[in-house]
């Protein structure tokens, strides 16, 4: 199965964290569906909500913070106001100072995924703006590991 078909077949069960978002009238564009830029806004929001709630991040003062270095999105179906979106989050890979997130957008009450995006963040030290030689702090790493999807084949 191709990568795009694998993404199109994602379900909520493929993700470890879900956050609801009530769409707003202003999220729609002139074509009566959610504007593409809103998807990135929502993806950034679900990631930061998770980091704040589960990883101890305090954006204005934490010694480390995540900088987005890459993002993309694949769109499969539209969503529009007044729908409720369900933003599903997982981590596909954790490096020394980087993390690869996968985010899916579902419409509440519908099974098929509407879009799947990827964000890559590098965690940098607030004082230098550079990745720490020690990598990301332990609390942050543990929180991210809680939604890490094990891609290694199981050894039976």
TrEMBL record:
One of its GO terms (molecular function) is fatty acyl-CoA hydrolase activity. Transmembrane segments: none annotated. SUPFAM superfamilies: Thioesterase/thiol ester dehydrase-isomerase (SSF54637). Keywords: Hydrolase. This is HotDog domain-containing protein. It holds the Pfam family 4HBT_2. Belongs to the 4-hydroxybenzoyl-CoA thioesterase family. It comes from Cercophora samala.
């Amino acid at each position: 199965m191709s990568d795009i078909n694998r993404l199109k077949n994602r379900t909520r069960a493929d993700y470890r964290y879900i956050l609801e978002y009530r769409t707003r009238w202003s999220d729609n564009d002139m074509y009566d569906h959610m504007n593409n830029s809103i998807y990135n806004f929502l993806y950034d929001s679900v990631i930061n909500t998770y980091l704040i709630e589960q990883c101890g991040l305090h954006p204005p003062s934490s010694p480390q913070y995540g900088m987005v270095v890459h993002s993309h999105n694949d769109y499969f179906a539209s969503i529009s106001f007044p729908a409720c979106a369900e933003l599903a989050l997982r981590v596909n890979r954790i490096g020394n100072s980087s993390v690869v997130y996968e985010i899916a957008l579902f419409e509440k009450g519908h099974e098929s995924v509407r879009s799947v995006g990827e964000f890559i963040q590098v965690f940098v030290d607030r004082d230098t703006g550079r990745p720490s030689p020690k990598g990301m702090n332990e609390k942050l790493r543990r929180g991210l590991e809680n939604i890490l999807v094990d891609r290694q084949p199981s050894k039976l």
